[in-house]
Specification:
This protein is an alpha/beta fold. It has ten helices and eight strands. Helix 3 crosses helix 4. The termini are far apart.
């Protein structure tokens, strides 16, 4: 299973053993949750650290995934308060998901995906999930753009249960430079993510405007025109910066407001202006409503991709089977 924490909501998807992925639920966060996410987005790095440098200890850091259940709290009050708010949101999400699952199965492990906010650290997510008693998959952050790309079929090897063959497949994949446009009720974001294999994707550049969420569309005609002009400028931020030698190759729409008619019209116009050398800029948009391809719901795209990653983590023998490169180096050093 996977959960995706967004600015105002949380969503979850599950991948079953037969290979199908189902959207489970969208859960609106409390006002306290929304305020925390906005605070985490603008915080200085280290503000919500696991522990202060003066009390940091290697053994404590190794045991950080148990925080909130078995170990003393962090000496930083804001860290503990953030755990409380996030874990309450996860507990509420878990309670909503429970009736959708088999009563005979334990709650499945989850691979979380969440925005690249300076204050939203992996240790914070670990601790919140431990407090919510949700088993955690993986040992590093899963970027939402990489997950959404995977949900749309980008950068996935076919033979993921055979690490060597999978790596060979990934080495032959084209380099993708994915522009993700995330439009939610809370904010508008443009994120540029380069990768060959989506599981190795990362957020290279990001711009986020908290005054351009769909809930902030003004009522007056002139004000609304200015609003959509600002939306267009954000969409065009990175296509205007990247070089012709390394252009945007794919565009992904994300967020609970990404299929709004006016927004899609502005997106088309913005891409047409920002990518004048592309014969049909719409062809870059993965899962575009007019492309004829199967549309992955932008609200659940990151959660669906994370569910795919989670299933592959559980089925792949990575860490159990020695890879070719390891065998090669072991022979060299004797």
């Amino acid at each position: 299973m996977s959960s995706s924490l967004i600015q105002r909501t949380s969503v979850a998807a599950i991948r079953y053993h037969n290979g199908t992925i189902h959207n489970l639920i969208k859960f609106d966060g409390s006002a306290e949750y929304r305020d925390l996410m906005k605070t985490l987005a603008v915080s200085e790095p280290g503000t919500f650290a696991l522990e202060s440098p003066a009390t940091s200890h290697p053994d404590q850091r190794q045991q950080q995934h148990h925080l909130g259940l078995r170990f003393p709290p962090s000496p930083q009050p804001q860290f503990n308060d953030a755990i409380r708010v996030l874990s309450n949101a996860l507990i509420a999400l878990k309670a909503s998901i429970g009736p959708l699952l088999s009563p005979y199965d334990a709650f499945p492990p989850a691979l979380p995906t969440y925005p690249n906010f300076p204050g939203l650290t992996y240790s914070l997510i670990q601790s919140a999930m431990a407090a919510a008693a949700i088993p955690l998959l993986g040992d590093a952050r899963t970027p939402p753009v990489a997950a959404a790309a995977a949900a749309n079929g980008l950068g996935l090897c076919e033979n993921y249960t055979k690490p060597d063959i999978c790596e060979d497949e990934e080495a032959r994949m084209r380099m993708s430079r994915v522009l993700a446009i995330e439009y939610t009720s809370a904010a508008l974001a443009a994120i540029l993510s380069p990768f060959q294999a989506s599981r190795k994707g990362f957020d290279w550049m990001e711009v986020r405007d908290w005054d351009l969420g769909s809930s902030a569309v003004p009522a007056g005609e002139e004000a609304e025109v200015r609003y959509w002009e600002h939306v267009k400028q954000v969409i065009q931020t990175f296509p205007a910066r990247v070089s012709r030698e390394r252009p945007v190759t794919d565009v992904i729409v994300m967020g609970d407001s990404a299929l709004e008619k006016t927004f899609l019209g502005v997106l088309r116009e913005a891409l047409r202006e920002a990518l004048p050398n592309n014969d049909d800029s719409r062809s870059l948009v993965v899962g575009f409503p007019e492309s004829g391809a199967a549309l992955v719901d932008p609200t659940f795209a990151a959660a669906r991709g994370a569910a795919e990653f989670g299933k592959r983590l559980m089925e792949s023998p990575n860490g159990c089977v020695e890879t070719r490169i390891c065998k090669y180096w072991r022979r060299l050093v004797g």
